[in-house]
Amino acid sequence: MAELINGKELAQSIRQILKIKCDELKEKGIKPKLAVILVGDDSASKIYVRNKNKACEEIGIEFEEYILKEETTTQESLIKLIENLNENPNIHGILLQSPIPQNLDINEAFRTINPDKDVDGFNPLNVGKLSLGQDTFVACTPHGIIKMLEEYKIDLEGKNVVIVGRSNIVGKPLIQLCLNKNATVTVCHSRTQNLEEYTKKADILIVAIGKPNFIKEDMVKQDAVVIDVGINRIDGKLAGDVDFENIKNKASYITPVPGGVGPMTIAMLMNNVIKAAENQKLKTK
Amino acid sequence: MAELINGKELAQSIRQILKIKCDELKEKGIKPKLAVILVGDDSASKIYVRNKNKACEEIGIEFEEYILKEETTTQESLIKLIENLNENPNIHGILLQSPIPQNLDINEAFRTINPDKDVDGFNPLNVGKLSLGQDTFVACTPHGIIKMLEEYKIDLEGKNVVIVGRSNIVGKPLIQLCLNKNATVTVCHSRTQNLEEYTKKADILIVAIGKPNFIKEDMVKQDAVVIDVGINRIDGKLAGDVDFENIKNKASYITPVPGGVGPMTIAMLMNNVIKAAENQKLKTK
Known about the structure:
homodimer, alpha/beta, globular
């Protein structure tokens, strides 16, 4: 049976280290603080925000929620709020929870977030810096995946990494991160023909498509490392994009759902808030 | 024998269209103008700058050269020059010819170029916008490659595109452009193991590594489309990264060197200058 990559445990140990860093910052008079903006009533978003809030509390990061009503929020008022938070020296990180209502322009909103406070790594400037190999805020889910691979000493150099899913928040940043580790990288997606031809050759297979149990045993190479980013709900139970039960005996390493990538995403968000507070401290010195 | 993709001819027809657009802008009182900065004495760079100058003249784009001496150019003076050009309303495009001397920070210089005048597409903001699928200036060589494929009606949808080379100016932007066309994309590079395993499966093979005749016939699939970005000099003669003589009978389409990708790069630079002038006209209206 594959070794389980225990994201929950790893995230916990990262949070402990971050708590120490947070305490050190506070001793120097800096209180790391995250502002979260939520527009509308999406129930999944509310759960995400609550989980982020809890993680902040545990580490000692201050947390400010801006819950905006869908009916009364205009593009102008959203941009104005972000600009105010940009200028507020007590706010170190700004997170706009997606999705936001269709009538608002989320791209403009992400572009408006000060790149130095962009703890989600969604501002195009930070996306570009990642692509160019420069220091930046890396989107939390792909960052968490790379951290897990590092922690389990899974070397990517020269390996065949196959990413299924090309989203802006997971697949695309992963391309850059895996190239930085000298992997050969293939990106597959909904328009890929003969998907299994690619997945079957993957030394490391990373799946982020949002289709429960989509990747079957015969699509995976013996002893592959399998990273499952999917969080799907079936009959009230969580399932990944990977048919875990049938693949766990074939893979060398595998992430469970829940308890794999999910907790790492929040840990890396916390990591980015602490990094933002440290960077802003350096700038104001 | 493969059909030759005639970049020279295609670039010529693009330049003719750009000349018409340039004339139209001038009738409206806008004189498109490119500023080129060259630091130091690199002889290849001088040739590139001369070719860009010639292309500008043909189209009617004004051209200003800033030839800086290596000995007297500091980071501060370079940044100051870029800032002045950023503020100059008569300059629509700014190009910093690379390489620049080692003691100067080219990344800071590229970051300083106003994104609206960044006709090379090297500012991280524009790199990020490309990754996010937003309208931006696309780096000229990859942009030229996509234009060639479009012009020859080579559909990328669902195709297996293999890119050899992961540079910031060719390989990485190509990933995004090919994903935008719904291709399945693999990126190989110097650390890739068993390179031929990937190249042999490519429907479309794009090579940008700077090693003369590196890709041999047995590394290419029958009827593949082969795009050769390499410009290498052997005994005074130009050679691509692809063993053209032996592959031309196996490929369905192939670009020659010279006369393939090279002329397209300059044509797309001209395209970006005209686009910059049009955009800036809209902004000042």
